[in-house]
Design brief:
Length: 201
């Protein structure tokens, strides 16, 4: 189906706003947004930027309610855990502000060095690690080598964001399968890499 044909079909459907969908389904506005982003509810945006949801997709979700529990069986997509490691508090705050603004179904965890990161990884089993390299205590190189030395660590998706030049990074033998971005953080490119990594997690 072409995009124009799809739009014409949408115009012929009964629609509702995300606020109305949340009221009909008995969930929060944010849950409706997550269902839209994950494809569980069919929606599109008007020329004015307002999201409209197909009433038929809302009705299908209502039909999947568990009669005994009175809840929707298809819950919002599970949150993916992203661990960000950087020794600079202002950088950690910047990551938090940026990633929270992406509207992705993820939980952000912060660590200030490699030691703390390894503890968090053992506790939380994150889906993705975003790390600086040049840090006091255990730096990013040692942390990544430790992770890559066992099966669980080898399965963890890793993205590096560093102020070091590429030659220095290469000389210190960072594994070649890890994407590397230079500071200042290119958040547009980083988001694409994060979404790709989380889709594989």
């Amino acid at each position: 189906m072409t995009q124009d044909a799809g739009k014409q079909d949408h115009l012929n459907e009964e629609v509702c706003s995300t606020k109305d969908a949340a009221r009909l389904l008995g969930v929060s506005h944010r849950t409706v947004q997550l269902w839209v982003e994950s494809g569980q509810l069919q929606a599109w945006k008007t020329p004015g930027g307002h999201r409209r949801i197909s009433m038929s997709s809302v009705e299908r979700m209502i039909a999947r309610r568990d009669p005994s529990a009175g809840a929707v069986q298809d819950a919002a997509p599970p949150l993916k855990t992203v661990l960000v490691v950087d020794d600079d508090p202002s950088m950690r705050r910047l990551y938090q502000l940026e990633l929270d603004g992406w509207g992705l179904p993820l939980r952000l965890v912060l660590a200030s060095d490699g030691f703390e990161a390894l503890i968090r990884i053992g506790e939380l089993r994150p889906d993705l690690l975003i790390s600086d390299l040049n840090m006091p205590g255990m730096d990013g190189f040692r942390m990544i080598r430790r992770l890559r030395s066992d099966d669980a660590g080898r399965a963890l998706s890793i993205i590096v964001v560093s102020g070091m030049d590429r030659e220095s990074i290469a000389a210190l033998a960072l594994p070649g399968d890890i994407p590397v971005f230079s500071k200042p953080v290119p958040f547009g490119q980083l988001r694409a890499a994060v979404e790709a990594a989380l889709s594989k997690a």
